[in-house]
Design goal:
Layout lengths: L5 E5 L3 H12 L3 E5 L3 H21 L4 H9 L1 E4 L2 H5 L4 E4 L5 H14 L5 E4 L19 E6 L8 E5 L6 H13 L3 E5 L8 H17 L5 H12 L5 H8 L1 H15 L2 H13 L30
Parallel strand pairs: 1-2, 1-4, 2-3, 4-5, 5-6, 7-8
Antiparallel strand pairs: 6-7
């Protein structure tokens, strides 16, 4: 079997930091790479939060937390971060040109053995395969935000992915505590986002066109479907930067003026004001105690 012991996570944001923590907690050695020191500082801060979360809410022992932290390291040097990597998980910004450029750099410095995986939510492995220098060892391994609760790992290759690599990544997803979801044909949005993105888009349409306020939209969904949060709570968890990127991506791709206008509002009313979602303490709701979590919210 192909050995996977050392993991490099590219991108110290919310999801990259979660993947890093989960992998380290499950016994893998993990290097978090980010091009900027502030990205690594954010990742370290996330890991302190996750340590407390696992201790308080998931029954992790002090020894387990200490061992997890000991398996985590951080670097802004891409060559150094990749030198021992058996598998790379990429969670950099959801921008095709940025990702293409990044994979060109990876191809120059990564060991031959390294399997490349992308955690991209809205693009396809075939968008980048030719830039990786190892298309047969490249595929998607996609996680949902809050990966220890929404513990699925969607595995999606492209036409040139080696079936043995695909199967090994499916097994790896299981090894880090995920339920593997093999996807046998490239699909924009995998399974989860093929279902979720239309919901979030419809909710934003209702809000940004003035049909209703975001709390009423969330209440409607939560009451009707019995969920613990609505689409705007989910948007805060996903992050407003990602919401902006997705609106821009599809607005430009489809030449959809309404999506581009929505992106502009997200930027001016949220991102430019530092309201990035859960990660910044405010998005549509304020954190750590959003109103939708109040027992009286649905009354």
């Amino acid at each position: 079997m192909i050995k996977i012991e050392n993991i490099t996570i590219a991108g110290g944001g919310t999801l990259g930091s979660q993947i890093a923590w989960q992998s380290a907690f499950m016994g893998f050695n993990v290097v978090v790479y980010d091009a900027f020191d502030k990205g690594l500082e954010a990742s370290r801060s996330f890991h302190k939060q996750y340590a407390e979360l696992f201790r308080k809410s998931r029954g992790a022992t002090k020894e387990e937390i200490e061992q997890t932290l000991s398996r985590l390291s951080y670097s802004t040097n891409l060559t150094e971060a990749l030198k021992d990597a058996d598998l790379l998980s990429e969670s950099i910004p959801e921008d095709i040109e940025i990702k293409k450029s990044f994979y060109k750099e990876l191809a120059k410095v990564a060991p031959e053995k390294t399997i490349f995986t992308t955690n991209s939510s809205t693009t396809l492995p075939s968008n980048y395969a030719s830039y990786t220098g190892r298309p047969e060892k490249f595929l998607a391994l996609h996680f949902a935000n809050g990966i220890w609760d929404t513990n699925i790992g969607e595995v999606m290759g492209h036409a040139g992915t080696d079936p043995k690599i695909f199967d090994r990544v499916v097994k790896f997803a299981s090894e880090i505590g995920m339920i593997p979801i093999p996807i046998h044909k490239e699909q924009n949005g995998y399974i989860l986002n093929s279902l979720l993105v239309p919901l979030l888009s419809a909710a934003q349409d209702l809000f940004f066109t003035g049909v209703s306020d975001f709390e009423s939209i969330d209440k409607t969904w939560m009451i009707s479907m019995g969920t613990r949060m609505g689409p705007f709570g989910i948007l805060d968890m996903v992050g407003l930067q990602t919401a902006y990127n997705i609106s821009m991506l599809w607005g430009e791709r489809l030449e959809d003026k309404s999506r581009l206008e929505r992106a502009a509002i997200i930027k001016s009313d949220f991102i430019d004001k530092g309201k990035m979602g859960v990660s910044s303490g405010e998005g549509f709701y304020k954190y750590p105690n959003p109103s939708y979590a109040d027992p009286d919210f649905l009354k």
